[in-house]
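[agent] plan:
  1. take the single chain provided in the ticket
  2. run structure prediction with default settings
  3. attach structure tokens to the ticket
  4. add a short note for the reviewer (M.T.)
[agent] executing step 1
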Amino acid sequence: MSVTEERGRITARVSSSIAEKLQEAAELTGATLNQFLVQAALEKAEMIIDREYLIRYSRRDAAMMIDLLEKAQGPNAALTKAFENYAQKVENGVLRDSTESNT
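[agent] step 2 finished; step 3 output follows
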């Protein structure tokens, strides 16, 4: 049993010069005019959608990051203890301070 995909139809009215240019481009790519138009329109649609989502999510992510930075509470006890241990090991020569230059 085969399943047929429902198809939509899109019609565009253009001047003959535009139609000729589109036909030429389709022929140069080895596609039918219909294939060429669908592919070109799909590529443009995906570009616009991707750009819009990128902008939308970038703004949302930036707002979230600013919110997190404004609510920052500073280091917790475990982080403070880890830093103290690190500083003590650097002072005792067990570790080298990673911020010092190699010279």
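[agent] step 4 note for reviewer: The chain has one domain: 16-91.
[agent] ticket updated
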